[in-house]
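Its record is retained below.
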Amino acid sequence: MEIPYVTEPRKDTGLYNAKVGIWLFLASEVMLFGGFFSAYILLRVGSVEGTWPTELLNVPIGTFNTLVLIISSVTVVLAWSALKLKQFGRYKFFQAITIICALIFVCVKSYEYRDKFTHYDVILNDGTRVDGHLVEKTDEYITLSHPLSYPAEKGIAYRPIAIELRDNPPADAETAGHDGDAAAAHPAEEGADEHATTSDSHGDGHGHDLTIQMADVKKMTNWGPWANTYFAIYFTMTALHALHVIGGALVIAYLWGPGAKMWKTDPERYTNRIEISGLFWHFVDLVWIFLFPVLYLL
């Protein structure tokens, strides 16, 4: 039995089955992501003033990924229009760019995740709090690169690093500690150098490494989803979005490769499939357009 309206649209609605199905599916997706955005808003509004982390994400990288997805949205439309014009070669070209953009986005996102999972927050027994990227970790000590001290308005409320960077001390320690500049610190308490040492990792007075004895560490964690509420919602929302990117890219890649055989037997139905996959891809891009300013800029 042949199923009606899989290629030709209904006369009363002007839609074919797949388009009705994808719009219903996207409606459920809107409710899914809408719940997460609502949770983010409620968590941020309900947080204690001055404790919500900000400026912890790499805005240039996020901007680059945004541009990548915007380009992919353009190419997926051009690919569909090429099929409508019976230009199969142009379709293959533009859809290949879409797949490449998806791979670039996932790779860049993986780099961001790795950066967070290698960024450690260390609390010492004397109350000193410092964070930096992991260089080396053993049972005896941990070495961090580019130690940072964030001011309270960034939502971390870290105390200034209680270590004097002897290789290149700041000209104005008090101002540097307040501004939270990388490698800017001053001795907050006497005897701080007893549990931590510094070294110049590049030999040019910049990019210091900080070594801390494990015996002096009270608590240590990286910037994973368990670090705080902000990173929990950040990883949840971006990981869910990344799964949608991967799923959409796999469908597009299948239709671009093995699934392209349908173009020879039923080109109109194949064109409809490309349109449906494109609608899903536009939704994925639109979600990121909201995620980027909410997580990276606000």
User: Anything to note?
Assistant: Confidence is low (pLDDT under 50) at residues 150-194, 200-206. The two ends are 55 Å apart (CA to CA). The first strand starts at residue 119 and ends at 124. Residues 120-222 form one domain.
